[in-house]
Amino acid sequence: MLIPCALKNGDTIGIVSTAFREDKSVIDGKINYFESLGFKIKIGESVYKEDGYFSGSTTARTLDLMNMFKDKDVKAIICFRGGYGSINILPYINLNTIRFNKKILCGYSDTTVLINYISKKTGLITFHGPMINSDFNNIETLESLKFTLMQGNKPYSIPLGNCSFINPSEISGRLCGGNLSTICSSIGSPYEPNFKDKILIIEDVNEKPYSIDRMLTQLLLSGKLHKCKGFIFGSFYKCDSDNISNNFTIKEIISRIFTPLNKPIILDFPIGHSYPNLTLPIGAMAKFNLFKKTLDIINPVVK
């Protein structure tokens, strides 16, 4: 795997917007916040642009990302927000530019396709973590991001104290995945994740139980779940129905589909569209450590 350089205090963070646009006042406020943390900020040209619901055209968003990788001053790239649109730029990404300019790339939600595709094709460890538009009033979210990007140069462990388990057993595998809807949108294309021997992260937001069921069943019937070594389920914020009497809960859906696979599953991991939203390194080797009740990141993820 390619390991990016660690972020340091005073470094420059490049901000790109690969998906939906955002209001200028919101952008400015978030930039001011990151500057208050002690970082310099470089803003991609498309961040303030509008192209329908996108933040600039497909070409503009792609160029922004490539320019941030080529810019020697930029030490880390963090996506501004999700929504939809990251998948549009994937055919136009110059993978060699990324291989020769390996640096931190962080995002989640819609950018799930981006961080997984780049990691799969280049071997670069990328990061499933909060974006610039996230709520950093949650201290755990901020501290996890800073620790992973700035101090993840040695193995570390994440406590699983509030998590539950299905088919518990100790396994190791590389991390992949993220937002369920976004993963499913890439299935059958060259941009889908590589599921073989992976620990698959799954989370979503604002989806009805039957929709979660449908997407998980798609992954099952396409043979993707059988290839994985294990699963980490994050938050499913606003996905459980208020009318429980004629519905399954999200946990019931997960149990019905995944228990027969006889693969280890972590439930309620603090990742996704609720808080805390911990940062996980995509492409890194991880281990389910049931003795310590931790998720162990086995190798350094920055250097």
UniProtKB/TrEMBL annotation:
InterPro entries reported in the protein's UniProt record: Carboxypeptidase_A_C_sf (IPR027461), Class_I_gatase-like (IPR029062), LdcA_N (IPR027478), Peptidase_S66_N (IPR040449), Peptidase_S66C (IPR040921), S66_fam (IPR003507)
Catalytic residues of the enzyme: 109 (nucleophile), 203 (charge relay system), 273 (charge relay system)
Gene Ontology molecular function, alphabetical: carboxypeptidase activity; serine-type peptidase activity
Coiled-coil ranges (or none): none
LD-carboxypeptidase C-terminal domain location: 172-287
One family name in Pfam for this protein: Peptidase_S66C
Key words, A-Z: Carboxypeptidase, Hydrolase, Protease, Serine protease
Gene Ontology biological process terms, A to Z: proteolysis
Domain LD-carboxypeptidase N-terminal stretches: 13-129
Family under the similarity heading: Belongs to the peptidase S66 family.
This protein's name: LD-carboxypeptidase
Species of origin: Clostridium paridis
